[in-house]
Every structure is written in structure tokens, then in C-alpha cells.
């Protein structure tokens, strides 16, 4: 190695170059579809640099994270920088991989910017008599230029010296920082002095010689706005100088001797370039592709050959660390910032994220390395390790900058729950985020469950510590805050560790499984929107609920008396055992079947069969059960679900439960309120708007039939929708040969039953039951329907064949809906699976469309200056709350967004309504 006096150090501004390369080059992807244009630009530059440079030492310098000492000086520093483009995020780690593949040292230091490290190494080298060349065009580095230090524009491949700096700033390099302090920098949010631009700043520097002299002389300047600003903002100018001056006393992470140039391992480099698909670069360098495992400088997923699944991370699970000291937590935060990705998990004392207390938080910045931060365990104010727990506010103050840092991806399993828990505790809402539950769901809806434990077993071949193991079971179960911290730590920290490992394996498969757009454009953006909806809740009229409960109880009493009269004696109507004895032992009704326990079966299907045969008692039992369910589920339960802090009920939207992508809800379940019955309308009347506001309902009209007309390409149905005709009357006219004019209601009702039944794969028996006609007659209707619309039967057969061949069907927007029972040996289960396969692309397509609309609506409302809130999503309907005077504007805007959420061969139509309660708006 050369002595220091002979050293010529080449420093590459890696952090600055990646942004320039990203915007300078057209989009490119690796073999598996990962964006790599910035990586390619960086690799090209590095290969040329290695070929042409005359240096003795070489290093690439990166930023370790967003938070540096400058943020401590001025908390608004770089606060307004936008989130990196989606296609750029995966390239940050790949650029580090490229550096490792080329055998070049990559340097970074937590708490310092790359520019500071460059300044420190430049000073170190020149003080020893050496030279330094900085490969960058960043104006902030131009203050370093002096004898022995020069810059080289890596894209234009031209030198930048004192002459070029003076032409740009009007001053010599040693005064650049002072000019920048006057001008300020809106990109980095450096305040500067208002009204002073480059020309004014350089003129002042020429006249006064320094920033201190300018500020000292401001009092004697001629009266002007400039003088006033200099006097008013003198302290900000001095602060700005501290922010823009590069620190030559920054640490040097590696000794200079370790940066000596060495020969490149060409086999290693060739394998990496081949994996990335950089064939032109391979050819230019005379290398032969030899596929081998990806070289990784950071433990994050990157590009790999198409079809090759990411390996399971091999690191052991634990041991994990309990963090109760703020300084230790700060080190974990810095590690997360350095890596650029961190899994996060919360522990609570309940399942309602709006009311459950936050007990602790887990972080996992690397696989196998995770910690648990206990916050409110009830252990006599001391944890089991004898260390006081951190106050919640202290921990969140330390974590907030990490959660808000746009350069660090926060990974959750079921992110919506954790976002609500954290924000309810007073934390900033984490962003950007990824959600392993939704990443998996976007690829495997219906194939398996999306819970963390199940995904861990399926994906990682690892069974996490069971919840029951740490909290106990049955009467011995305790809430999590009463779990000893020494037992809580391995359980809680493992959750974050498993989440990060799931992300590493599942995230790259989104492209392979053609689910990336679905996840990025629908599922992930919906997380904060649904969280806001749950947080907002909806008001209910408690007095009306009590009146409704009384009303339902009275009607149940009337029906119960009728049931006793029909049975010939009193009995407990709610007892399946007593009902079975009445129906099959005493009344001798046909079709009874005993359960394994020996009692008669009396579920709704049994009662419906009997009712269809004309037996009145089973029909009255069904009516009684319906009222009993509505009374207990809504009239009574809603009173207990009113949040005392908000006076509203807050349903929870489940994002990864259904096979088709539809949202479901619980506590309360709003999906099961009857739509067309009097009782359903009565329940909806209890959901009300806040004083001075109204509810606006926006509902897609016949969206699944429109999708059927589109995907099955049925000209007659398409024409009917395009002309705005009554689709059921048109169907009746087409199938039964009856003119549209004067269509009788019964015929239209039969056509309507066929239209909606077909998309659910209805059988002749099922249609006959709906219409009250024999199955043979219903079969004739179905045959006539398919004869008129043969394209629909072709579509159904095509979809069933797809399900049998692939195991799943696909919505028009690319969502895979898995149908596990499609190959079942049981004909009953197989037929059911076929009906699922027929309906899934239509119901799933409708779910995709409304999700696309939901993602766009909040921004549309904001842009229009409307403060209306989206409160509910129920199937194809959205419900909003808005000031009464703004209702018409909101309804028109929402209709426009929803109708333009997708482009079909038929128009999407949205019907809106307004009212002080949901029933009137619906």
C-alpha cells in the first residue's frame, strides 16, 4: 500500500448519485421485475470509475438514515422532503449490494450525513499531503473544493473546480456555505433569509466579506425590505450556516489503510450482474454470466431470477432484548434507520384498538435481532428485571422520528390494528408501511388464513410462541399487562422478528404472482383510510335503539303466541331440542334428521324446507328467529357498543377474511343487516348524522351484473346497460319473448331472480324455492336464459375450468381468488366450490372497484375543500357524513369518483341519497 503522502482517495457520493441516476435513466427492471434503473446507472458509473480512475484508495459513502445532529439543531431540517418514489425504494439496498459486488468499501455513520463523512476524509487525506476526488455534482459538497480536493460529475464525467464553483455561486468555494446560509434551501428546509437570492447573496459577500460582517452591518444599511429581513432573521441565518456547513470533524468509520484499492473478484461480480440482468454491462466488462446466490450488504430482499423463491432467513429466533432505558432505545432506532426497514408490533390488553391500552412495542430491524419495550406492565412499577419501565410518552418521543421517517419502511402484520393502537396512545401515524397480512392476502385469498402464526408455519416452517403459553387459558388467563416482562419479551419480540422474516419471503413474490399492483394500488393505501373510518365511527340514536328493542320484543311475543297455538301447547321457542320434538315427534312433519347427539336437526335450512312445503309453524319460527337475531345483534348490542368517549359506534373492518377481496366488519357486523326488509330499514334508521350534518349514501347499481355483461361479453346485456334500460325487464323480454311495454311484475321478478341467481351459480332447486315453483319449471327458465345468452354459460364453464387447472380464479383486476374445494371428492362440496368459482370474479371485481374508489376519495374531498368523512363501506355502498349545506356537492363528487374508478364496456352507475339517518339516505 502507498504511504499517506502518495494517497489519492476517490470518494463516491452514493446517496446523492442514486437519486440522479433514477431520474436520469428510463425505467428498467431485473429478471423478476424489480426496478433497477438507478442500480444500473450506479453500476455503470462504478465500472467506468474502476476502469479509469488513477486513485490509490476508494470508497462509496452513504447516508445512514434521515436523523442527524442537524435535526437536533433544527427539528424542521429536511422535514418536508417527499417520500422516495415507490420504484426507487427497493433500489437503495441494491446499490449497496452493487458496491459489495464490485469489492468497494461502503461507508456510513449513524447521526451523520454522507457529505460530512466526505468532508472528514477529504480533510484527513489533504492534511497528510494526499489528494481527494469527490465523485458527485451536489452543490453542498462544492464548499470542500480547495488545493488537493476536486469534484467530478459522475454522469457528465467532467471536473468541477474552483472556477466552476465561482461561476455557479459568484464566490470562491470557501464562502459557498455562507452564501447558502443567506439563500436558504427549500429542499432541505434550511430557512436562510427571506427575499435573498443567489445574486443578492454573492453581492453582499463581495461587499462585506463574510456572513458575520453582513449581519453586523445590516443596521447601517439603507432602509429596505432586505435590511429589515437581515435584521429580523439574523439568528436564522446563523443557524442556517450551522446546517449547511459540512463537518470536517465527523468520524471516519474505517481507517484510510482499509480503503486501498484491490483487484475485483470478477467471478463474484459476474454472478451479481447476471442476477440483475445487466447483460450489456457484463458484455462490456468481458464477463460471463454464472448464476449464484445474491450478494447482500443488507439483510433485505432484492432481485433474484424469476421463479426462484426467496430463501427462509436462517438466523436463530432470539434471544431477544428487553429495552427499558431511553438511550438503549435510541440505539435500536438508529439501527432501524441504518437498515431502512423495521418490523413493528404492539401488545395491548384487548382486541379493540380504540380502547385497548398500549402495553408494549416490539421492534425488529434485522432477522433474529428484535427487542421488546414494555410500557405499562402491572408489576409494582418495576419490571421483573428490576428496571423501571419507560413512561409511554418518553418511548413515543424517541420512536416518533423513526415512525415518521419517510426513508424507513415500517412493516406490520395487520397494520391497521397497530396504527390505531399507536395513534390512540399519542404516537405519530407510522409511514410508509408494509403489511405482511395484506401482502399474503393479495396473493392467496381463500387458499389459507392470513394470521401471523399460520403464515409463519406455512412460509417459515416455524411455530411462534403461543399466546396461551404466556397469558394462560380459561379462568387462569390474565391480560397481557399482567404477564411478567421476562416472559413477555420473547413472545412479543418474536412477533416482530417473524413479521420481518415474512416480509422478506413474501414481498418479492408479489411480482412473481402478478399481485404487486393490487397490493400497492388497493390494499396498502386502504389501511390508513379504513383506520380513519374506524376512528371516526358513526352516531346511533340510543333512545331509538331502546324503542326498537321494545318493538322487536313485542312482535316476538305476538309471533311466539301464534307458534304456541300452531303447536298446540307452550314450549321454549328458543330451544332447538324442544322445537324438534314438536315438529317431528308430535306433529310428524316429514324430512326430519337426527344429529350425532340424537336430537332432531332444526337449523334454518331444515325449517326453510318445511316452510317451502307450506307448513306454517316452521315459517313462523324463522320469522321469530330473524327478529331475535336483529334484537340481540343490533337493537340491544349497539347500545353496549357506543364508545363513551365519542358517543359513536366504531365498527372494525376486516381486510383479509373473504376469498373475493370484499371487506367484512364486526362489532357491529354491518354486512348482515337485511337490505330489503322492513326490519333492516328500521335498524338503519338508528344510525344517524351528527347535529348540523347529514348522511350521504353512494351505492353502485347492479355492479355484479354489469361486470358479468363486461367479462362474458353479452351484447344484449351490454346494450341494455348502455341505454339505461331496466335490466330485469330487458332480460324478461329477451328470455320469455315478452314486449318491454306493459311487462307484468311477476315476469320481471322471475327475470330478476335469474339475473342475480346466475352470478351465484344458482341451481334449479334453489331458483324454484325462490320463485315458489317446481324445480322442473325453474330448470326451464334457466335453460331459456342460457339459450338466449350462451356467452354466460361459456363464461361459467371457462371459469370452472380455470379453477380446476390453477386452483384459483382471477378478477378483472388481477386478484387471485383461491377455490380449495374445486377438486374435492365430495360432489356436494365440489359443486359448492364451482358456484364459488363462478361468482368470485364478479363479487371480487366489484370489491376491487369500490376499493379503487375508496383510495381516491379522501384526496378528492380534500382537493375540493369538503370536510365530509367516509364512515362506512357495506358491500357496494359507501356512507359519508357531511355538513348539510355541502351534501349535494359531496354526493356529486363521490359519484364522479366512483363511476370513474374502473373502465368497463358498460357504464358504472352510482345512486346517491341523503338523509339525517342511514335508512333515509339509503
From TrEMBL:
The keyword DNA damage applies. Residues 4-262 form the 5'-3' exonuclease domain. It catalyses: DNA(n) + a 2'-deoxyribonucleoside 5'-triphosphate = DNA(n+1) + diphosphate. Pfam families: 5_3_exonuc, 5_3_exonuc_N, DNA_pol_A, DNA_pol_A_exo1. Residues 308-317 have a biased composition (Pro residues). SMART domains: 35EXOc, 53EXOc, HhH2, POLAc. One of its GO terms (molecular function) is DNA-directed DNA polymerase activity. It is an enzyme of class 2 (transferase). Residues 680-886 form the DNA-directed DNA polymerase family A palm domain. Residues 320-511 form the 3'-5' exonuclease domain. This is DNA polymerase I. It comes from Komagataeibacter oboediens.
Amino acid at each position: 500500500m502507498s504511504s499517506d503522502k502518495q494517497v489519492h482517495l476517490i470518494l463516491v457520493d452514493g446517496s446523492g448519485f442514486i437519486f440522479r441516476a433514477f431520474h436520469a435513466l428510463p425505467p428498467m427492471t431485473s429478471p423478476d421485475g424489480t426496478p433497477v434503473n438507478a442500480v444500473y446507472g450506479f453500476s455503470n458509473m462504478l465500472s467506468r470509475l474502476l476502469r479509469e480512475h488513477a486513485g490509490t484508495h476508494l470508497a462509496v459513502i452513504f447516508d445512514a438514515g434521515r436523523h442527524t445532529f442537524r435535526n437536533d439543531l433544527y427539528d424542521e431540517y429536511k422535514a418536508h422532503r417527499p417520500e422516495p418514489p415507490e420504484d426507487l425504494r427497493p433500489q437503495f439496498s441494491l446499490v449497496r449490494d452493487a458496491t459489495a459486488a464490485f469489492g468497494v468499501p461502503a461507508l456510513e455513520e449513524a447521526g451523520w450525513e454522507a457529505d460530512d463523512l466526505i468532508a472528514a476524509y477529504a480533510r484527513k487525506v489533504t492534511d497528510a499531503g494526499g489528494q481527494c476526488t469527490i465523485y458527485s455534482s451536489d452543490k453542498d459538497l462544492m464548499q470542500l473544493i480547495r488545493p488537493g480536493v476536486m469534484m467530478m460529475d459522475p454522469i457528465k464525467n467532467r471536473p468541477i473546480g474552483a472556477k466552476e464553483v465561482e461561476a455557479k455561486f459568484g464566490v470562491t468555494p470557501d464562502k459557498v456555505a455562507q452564501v447558502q446560509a443567506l439563500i436558504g434551501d427549500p429542499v432541505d428546509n434550511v430557512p436562510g433569509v427571506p427575499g435573498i437570492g443567489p445574486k443578492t447573496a454573492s453581492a453582499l459577500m463581495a461587499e462585506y466579506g463574510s456572513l458575520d460582517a453582513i449581519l453586523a452591518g445590516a443596521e447601517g444599511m439603507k432602509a429596505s425590505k432586505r435590511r429589515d429581513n437581515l435584521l429580523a432573521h439574523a439568528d436564522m441565518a446563523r443557524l442556517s450556516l450551522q446546517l449547511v456547513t459540512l463537518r470536517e470533524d465527523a468520524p471516519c468509520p474505517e481507517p484510510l489503510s482499509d480503503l486501498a484499492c484491490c483487484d475485483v473478484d470478477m467471478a463474484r461480480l459476474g454472478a451479481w450482474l447476471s442476477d440483475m440482468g445487466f447483460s450489456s454491462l457484463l458484455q462490456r466488462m468481458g464477463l460471463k454470466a454464472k448464476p449464484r446466490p445474491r450478494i447482500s450488504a443488507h439483510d433485505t430482499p432484492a432481485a433474484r431470477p424469476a421463479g426462484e423463491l426467496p430463501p427462509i432467513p436462517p438466523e436463530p429466533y432470539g434471544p431477544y432484548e428487553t429495552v427499558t432505558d431511553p438511550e438503549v432505545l435510541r440505539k435500536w432506532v438508529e439501527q432501524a434507520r441504518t437498515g431502512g426497514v423495521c418490523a413493528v408490533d404492539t401488545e395491548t390488553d384487548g382486541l379493540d384498538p380504540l380502547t385497548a391500552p398500549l402495553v408494549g412495542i416490539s421492534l425488529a430491524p434485522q432477522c433474529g435481532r428484535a427487542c421488546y419495550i414494555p410500557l405499562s406492565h402491572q408489576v409494582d412499577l418495576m419490571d421483573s428485571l428490576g428496571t423501571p419501565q419507560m413512561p409511554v410518552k418518553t418511548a413515543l418521543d424517541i420512536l416518533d422520528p423513526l415512525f415518521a421517517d419517510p426513508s424507513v419502511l415500517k412493516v406490520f402484520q395487520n397494520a391497521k390494528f397497530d396504527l390505531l393502537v399507536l395513534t390512540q396512545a399519542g404516537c405519530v401515524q407510522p409511514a410508509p408501511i408494509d403489511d405482511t397480512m395484506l401482502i399474503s392476502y393479495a396473493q392467496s385469498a381463500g387458499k389459507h388464513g392470513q394470521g401471523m402464526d399460520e403464515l409463519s408455519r406455512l412460509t417459515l416452517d416455524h411455530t411462534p410462541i403461543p399466546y396461551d403459553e404466556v397469558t394462560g387459558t380459561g379462568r387462569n388467563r390474565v391480560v397481557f399487562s399482567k404477564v411478567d416482562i421476562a416472559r413477555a419479551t420473547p413472545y412479543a419480540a418474536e412477533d416482530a422478528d417473524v413479521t420481518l422474516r415474512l416480509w422478506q419471503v413474501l414481498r418479492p413474490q408479489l411480482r412473481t404472482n402478478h399481485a404487486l399492483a393490487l397490493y400497492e394500488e388497493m390494499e396498502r393505501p386502504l389501511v390508513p383510510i379504513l383506520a380513519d373510518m374506524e376512528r371516526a365511527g358513526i352516531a346511533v340514536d340510543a333512545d331509538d335503539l331502546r324503542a326498537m328493542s321494545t318493538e322487536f320484543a313485542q312482535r316476538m311475543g305476538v309471533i311466539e303466541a301464534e307458534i304456541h297455538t300452531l303447536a298446540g301447547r307452550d314450549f321454549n321457542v328458543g330451544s332447538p331440542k324442544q322445537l324438534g320434538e314438536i315438529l317431528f315427534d308430535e306433529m310428524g312433519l316429514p324430512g326430519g334428521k337426527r344429529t350425532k347427539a340424537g336430537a332432531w336437526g332444526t337449523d334454518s335450512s331444515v325449517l326453510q324446507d318445511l316452510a317451502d312445503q307450506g307448513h306454517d309453524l316452521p315459517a313462523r319460527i324463522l320469522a321469530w328467529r330473524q327478529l331475535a337475531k336483529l334484537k340481540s345483534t343490533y337493537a340491544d348490542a349497539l347500545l353496549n357498543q357506543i364508545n363513551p368517549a365519542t358517543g359513536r359506534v366504531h365498527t372494525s373492518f376486516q381486510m383479509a377474511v373473504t376469498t373475493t377481496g370484499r371487506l367484512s366488519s364486526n362489532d357491529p357486523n354491518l354486512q348482515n343487516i337485511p337490505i330489503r326488509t322492513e326490519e333492516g330499514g328500521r335498524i338503519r334508521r338508528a344510525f344517524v348524522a351528527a347535529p348540523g350534518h347529514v348522511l350521504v349514501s353512494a351505492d353502485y347499481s347492479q355492479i355484479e351484473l354489469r361486470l358479468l355483461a363486461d367479462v362474458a361479453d353479452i351484447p344484449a346485456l351490454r346494450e341494455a346497460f348502455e341505454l339505461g334500460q331496466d335490466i330485469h325487464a330487458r332480460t324478461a323480454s329477451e328470455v320469455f319473448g315478452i314486449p318491454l311495454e306493459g311487462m307484468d311484475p311477476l315476469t320481471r321478478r322471475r327475470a330478476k331472480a335469474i339475473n342475480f341467481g346466475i352470478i351465484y351459480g344458482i341451481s334449479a332447486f334453489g331458483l324454484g324455492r325462490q320463485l315458489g315453483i317446481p324445480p322442473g319449471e325453474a330448470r326451464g327458465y334457466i335453460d331459456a336464459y342460457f339459450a338466449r345468452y350462451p356467452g354466460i354459460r361459456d363464461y361459467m364453464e371457462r371459469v370452472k375450468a380455470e379453477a380446476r387447472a390453477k386452483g384459483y380464479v382471477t378478477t378483472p383486476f388481477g386478484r387471485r381468488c383461491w377455490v380449495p374445494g374445486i377438486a374435492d371428492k365430495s360432489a356436494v362440496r365440489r359443486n359448492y366450490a364451482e358456484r364459488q368459482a363462478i361468482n368470485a370474479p364478479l363479487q371480487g371485481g366489484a370489491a376491487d372497484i369500490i376499493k379503487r374508489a375508496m383510495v381516491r376519495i379522501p384526496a378528492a374531498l380534500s382537493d375540493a375543500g369538503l370536510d365530509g368523512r367516509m364512515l362506512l363501506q357495506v358491500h357496494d355502498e359507501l356512507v359519508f357524513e357531511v355538513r348539510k349545506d355541502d351534501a349535494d356537492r359531496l354526493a356529486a363528487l363521490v359519484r364522479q369518483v366512483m363511476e370513474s374508478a374502473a373502465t368497463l364496456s358498460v357504464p358504472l352507475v352510482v345512486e346517491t341519497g341523503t338523509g339525517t339517518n342511514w335508512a333515509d339516505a339509503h
